[in-house]
Amino acid sequence: MYKAIIFDLDNTLLNYTLSEMESMNRTLRDHDLFVEDEEKREAFWQSFLKHNFKHWMDFVNKTGSHQSIIDVLIRSFRDSLNMNHSHHVKLTHTYWDYFCNTCLYETGAEEVLHSVKSQYKLGIISNGIGEAQRKRLAAGKIDHLFESIIVSDEAGVRKPRKEIFDLSLNELRLSRSEVLFIGDSLTDDYHGAKNAGIDFCFYNRNGLSLTNEYQPKYTVSKWHELLRVVDL
């Protein structure tokens, strides 16, 4: 029935949470911060996540003075550490370089990608930063598998807006009924696919119980289950 499968990237194909954590741990080691103090390192990490989420949302919603992802990260380090500005800048560039070159898959994702590639066109629609998303795919040596990669900061539109899905359909040269979209977010991915009139497969990585408000066409909790959905 389908001719293409379009994937969300973070916490669908790639494990964003672990990528963030590994990149930060490497950054802290490089700068000799909290190396011997796990309790302080964890306290910093929780503070950073909180501040980073706020600054990221300000950046996404254009409600602050953040001009780039680098600004977001500098401010996140600033609000989490009592250091001078130059150190925040150095930490930011170290972290960003590690993150952009870290490709950690969701369990089973790489194998399933290679399995479905022979039968379907593949695409990506991601709410993220193009530099990071493309470099991470290249680091994992899977960038060549996708005939369409749409990233929100490059496209100027984000999920759940239907327009970002239209861009993918145009690049794949397919109609709405010919593609399946899989993602982990009920906010961005489910509603985005619904707005675009595209069948949605919910990657329920956290075992959520769905209310009647959400009715995806398919639900999988592990990657290999997608093969049954697409009859492979």
From TrEMBL:
Enzyme class: hydrolase
Gene3D superfamilies attached to this UniProt entry: HAD superfamily/HAD-like, Putative phosphatase, domain 2
InterPro entries in the record: HAD-like_sf (IPR036412), HAD-SF_hydro_IA (IPR006439), HAD_2 (IPR041492), HAD_sf (IPR023214), PGP-like_dom2 (IPR023198), Pyrimidine_5'-ntase_YjjG (IPR052550)
Keyword Glycoprotein in record: no
Matches recorded under SUPFAM superfamilies: HAD-like
Entry EC no(s): 3.1.3.-
GO molecular function: hydrolase activity
UniProt entry keywords in alphabetical sequence: Hydrolase
Domain of life from the UniProt record: Bacteria
Name of protein: HAD family hydrolase
Organism: Cohnella suwonensis
